[in-house]
Each structure stands twice: as structure tokens, then as C-alpha cells.
Amino acid sequence: MFTPQALSIAGSDSGGGAGIQADLKTFQMRRVFGTSVITAVTAQNTLGIGTTLMLPVDTVRAQLDALAADFHIKAFKTGMLGTADMIEGIVEKIHEHDFGTFVLDPVMAAKDGTPLLQKNALAAFKSHLLPLANVLTPNLPETYVLTGINVRTDHDAAEAAERLQAQGVQTVLIKGGHSENSGSLICKDWVFTPENRFVLESPRTLTRHTHGTGCTLSACITAELAKGASIEHAIRTAKALLSAAISSPLNIGNGQGPLNHWAMRMEN
């Protein structure tokens, strides 16, 4: 029996709520064997990030080589990449090895506002990573940085997605959780595939325990793709499971606590 295998290329969160830790928890809940390439080590908890140490690019490249030599990875995602040199080193290995379908989570800042992508790395992100992405999952602030469009309406979302797809992205999932209308009872996301466009809506849970939502959503999409699901099915599944993880908080920590990844367990 073939066991689906997926990869996360991201930073380590010592608090366990986001980054590599959240991704591996998500893979496990979705019955996918998770592998990881760590780009950075952070000292953080639910209150914020203290310090960050970027790993040497050669170490990251060696991790990717090691995985390619022994595993059969069908889908992978990237999270915190940090620097232009890191992006360029990873892109070289993406071209060299086949890690399957690529889910790009454009991690630019932590929830406490700490920058996680250097300003001078944005050009490399746009020119090297966007053209490779099968699925891109920006939140509203990230969408603005990448397109210059402040998404408030369906029309805004469509225009932003068109700009991103013109840069090579295949499917764009614009996450509406950061909407200015955050008091709304509904959370709205926009999805644009090469063949289809649709809106996903879910009840908005009023909670401070939302650390790692972006990582978890993109990891769940990656896991479903590793199992052979279509992109649309993977996105719909991930949205439903993320809603479950948010609505059943663990109440851990004194700040923005982690999601309940146990709530993501399903039979399929």
C-alpha cells in the first residue's frame, strides 16, 4: 500500500502553533506522512516572537537533497522563507527535484506583526516563486503587498487574482479572515482556479485562538493533494477542517493561542 507523503518547507515555531509544527500536525491528522525542511528557528509563544535564526541556505538545500533521495513526495508547501538567498536556493532545488504539486503560503509577517520576509526578498518571491505555484494562499494584507489591491469586494478579489495568475500562479485562494468587516458573522474566502471561481463562506468564530490558521490551511490543502484529490476538493476540505479547528479552541497560552488540530480528524 502506498502511503501519501508530503513536505513542508518552513520555519520552526517553538510554541507549536504555526510553522513546521502546525504543518506536521495537520499532515498527521489527514493521514499523510509528513516530511520537513526547516528554514529558520524562532523563539516564540502565544504572545509573540522573540528571536529568529535563519539557517544556512546550504543546510536547507542539503535537507531537500536528502528527502529527494529517499521519499516519494507528491505535494509540498512553503511557509516562512525569510530572505532572497533562501528563496533562490530553494527554487533551484524545486527545479532539480520533483516534489509534486506546490502550495505557496506567502508568509510575510507573524500575527504579532513581526516581519518574516525581508523587504529585499519580495522581488525574488514574485519573480521566482509565483510562476511555480499551483496554489497560492495569501491573506488580505499579503494580497495587497503582492498586487497593490486592497480587497474589499468580489470585484477586488477577481482583479487581484487576475494579476497573480498573470504572473504564473495557477490557483489563487484569497483568505478573507483579515477583512475590515471583522465583526461580520461570516468569514469569506475567494477561490480562482484556471477553470472555475467560487466563494467559500463559513461562520466566523470570535476567538483569540487563531495562531497558525494560514499554515494549517495550506498544509491541509497540501495533504489532500498528496492523496490525489483535485485542487478544488482539497481547498473545500481544508476550509471545512480549518473551521472545525478554530471553533473548538484548546485555550492554550496567554495570547493568540493555537488551533485545535485534533478537530481536523475525519475518516476520509
Describe what you observe in this structure.
The chain has helices spanning 19-29, 57-68, 84-96, 122-129, 140-147, 154-166, 213-226, 231-247, and strands at residues 5-13, 33-45, 48-54, 75-78, 101-104, 135-136, 171-174, 186-192, 197-203. The protein is an alpha/beta fold. The protein has one domain (5-264): 3-Layer(aba) Sandwich (UDP-N-acetylmuramoyl-L-alanine:D-glutamate ligase), CATH 3.40.1190.20.
How would you characterize the largest beta sheet? 9 strands, mixed
CATH superfamily membership: Ribokinase
Helix content: 25-40%
Query: What's the mean pLDDT score?
Result: 93
Beta-strand content estimate: 15-25%
Shape descriptor reads globular
- If you consult CATH, what is the topology? UDP-N-acetylmuramoyl-L-alanine:D-glutamate ligase
Distance between the termini: 16 Å
Q: Please identify the structural class as seen in this structure.
A: alpha/beta
In CATH, the architecture is 3-Layer(aba) Sandwich
Domain count: 1
Q: What are the segments in which pLDDT stays under 50 over at least 5 consecutive residues?
A: none
SSE series: EHEEHEHEHEHHEEEHH
* The CATH top-level class label: Alpha Beta
Number of strands: 9
Reading side by side through the largest sheet, how are the strands ordered? 3-2-1-4-5-6-7-8-9
- What is the count of helical runs? 8
Rg, rounded, reads 17 Å
